[in-house]
Design goal:
Blueprint (H helix, E strand, L loop, with lengths): L1 H27 L1 H10 L23 H27 L4 E2 L5 E6 L4 E10 L5 E15 L2 E4 L4 E5 L4
């Protein structure tokens, strides 16, 4: 019973972190950067001519869409959080999904969410590597549904 409560608590915490990242994305100018990457020098610069001065683009997802995506991610990640938590408890190698950082990649056909977290060896020693639980979603009406099974991938360190 305690394990079930812990899983729910972890899922709620992960969902809260997920929503906070969604709310911060418009302020960080993440959408503008994506436009610039795709279009090179010919992409619209927002009138600022090089950054900083232009206001951040509005988040393309409504509050209802953000909540629906948050709910879907929380539900779909819960079994994985539980599995990794059990590995940690038994002293096996695990991925710390309890402290995962969500990364959201919208596309024309849906949304990809990557929960990136540190990887640990047995007995809780960091490996220095990260893994991501990758979940793809398609929007169906006012909800998001999984587009295939979640997968794991290694995260390449940023330079």
């Amino acid at each position: 019973m305690l394990d079930t409560r812990m899983r729910k608590l972890v899922a709620i915490l992960a969902a809260t972190m997920f929503v906070s990242v969604l709310m911060m994305a418009p302020r960080a100018g993440a959408i503008e950067v994506k436009k610039m990457i795709g279009g090179g020098d010919s992409a619209p610069s927002g009138g600022g001519g090089g950054g900083g001065g232009a206001p951040a683009a509005k988040n393309p997802m409504s509050k209802a869409q953000q909540q629906a995506l948050q709910d879907a991610v929380a539900n779909d990640s819960d079994p994985f959080v539980g599995q990794e938590s059990e590995k940690k408890s038994s002293g096996e190698a695990y991925v710390d999904l309890e402290h995962a950082k969500p990364h959201i990649f919208p596309s024309a056909s849906g949304v990809t969410v990557k929960l990136e977290a540190d990887s640990y060896k047995a007995k809780g020693k960091k490996t220095g590597q990260q893994k991501a639980l990758v979940m793809k979603y398609k929007q169906k009406g006012s909800t998001y549904v999984a587009d295939g099974e979640p997968t794991w991938e290694d995260v390449k360190p940023e330079k």
